[in-house]
Design brief:
Elements lengths: L12 H11 L11 E5 L2 E2 L11 E6 L2 E7 L10 E4 L4 E4 L1 E6 L9 H8 L3 H14 L2 E6 L5 H10 L7 E4 L3 E3 L11 E3 L3 H14 L4 E3 L5 H14 L3 E4 L3 H10 L3 E3 L12 H10 L3 E2 L8 H7 L7 H4 L4 H9 L15 H17 L4 E2 L14 H11 L4 H15 L16 E4 L13 E6 L2 E5 L2 E2 H15 L1
Parallel strand pairs: 1-5, 2-6, 7-8, 8-9, 10-11, 12-13, 13-14, 14-15, 15-16
Antiparallel strand pairs: 1-3, 3-4, 6-17, 17-18, 18-19, 19-20
Amino acid sequence: MMIPARRPAPVTRAFALAAFAVLIAVPSAAAQDRTLALVGGQLLDGYEVPPIHHAAVVIEGNRIVAVGPAAEIDIPADAEIIDTRGKTMMPGMVDAHVHIMILGHGDYSRWFPWFEGNDELVYETSAKQLLAAGVTAGVDLAAPMSSLAFRDRVNRNEVPGPRLLASGPWVTRYAWGFLPDELRVLHRTPEEAAERTRMLIDAGVDVIKTWIGTTEEDMRAIKAVAGPAGVPIHCHVYVEEVVWGAIRGGCDVLQHAGSGGSVPPYSQELVDHIAMEGIPVVQTISHRIWIYPATVEFPERLWDPDIINSFPPSIREEVLASYTKNDFWRKPYFRTTPRQIRNSEGASRQFIEADALMAMGTDTGSPLNFHAESAWREVSAFVDMGMTEIEAISAATKVSAEVLGLSETGTIEPGKLADIIVVDGNPLFDINVLGYVTDVIKDGIIYKRNGVPVWETEEAQTQTSTRGS
């Protein structure tokens, strides 16, 4: 199995920070009134087609209004120009399996008690890290009900972060001791499963997530409530018979299937059925089986300043403390990982070879799986397992957006929302350059420019002002 290479470090970060302080204002709804033009770089529009070279994208407010070769695009005289020469413009990535309540901490039994009382700080940190990494939309699958209010703040652009869908707590029959009560809603019967589903929908969730122990009868009861309400069901599944039960019960999106969590291969009958029926699969293949060997090979990644410095001091201390000893392989989360690594190649390739409908999801926030790099690692793993680079990029943008029902994002074309990222290099040559996102625009607002997130600029300006006084 090929381990994705570590992305190159941005060597001009200090210079970019100083320049960025002059170039950009604080993101706000008012920023959507201006005209932006990204000019000069290669353009990947999210479709599986050849790129447009020396391209231009014009944005008015929060919408894309023109796309094409720069020589053929009329750039408005009042447009703010973002020079993308030597870089690649593409849709913001869409993560179909996000966890904003966890941040890559190594020990859930220690993390969840720490999370209590720090939920807003954790949510905001996760959202900023995801956005800076080029994830401009996603679905959060399992968090306390407080995550719904945070989703609304992010979607109103009050807090930097991807546009979010949220499941709130998952629906399950299991009450594992290490999980906080607010992370799950328990049921004992299909009737109770339906009741809990109605409660979540009334509370405003966008999707229902079912977790371990959900039976086919439970699924049918959940679907009877969620289906008429137009709320999709995402199902945590590994073992073949559980996958079949979820499908028969009306599951809309299969989460984790083919990630090595069960002994492969799945039967060809199951794989063919999923592919032919167009049932979306979100494998989350890198969250253990790529990241674990990458960390064994290079444990220094746990102290990568581009990751660690993106945490506020209190979270940074807690995350680092969970990896104080260089023995992360002893953590309970990784007890079965060596077996999953052995299983992963067969399990992952099956759906790719069957041309199943595959969205990109990372399980980001799980141990070692930092928001700052989970997306590029997952897309890189797709390529390792047989997708072409353009197929993997489309899976991470257009396809993921379609699977999540986010029809106005995921591609770069006139009329779509302006969710665009710029990466330093050509991901069609080396997919790992997705790890070096230099610019991020979400909803027409510039959130990152020249490698520096806007909130870091604000913090730098505040610190300079404080020192000057």
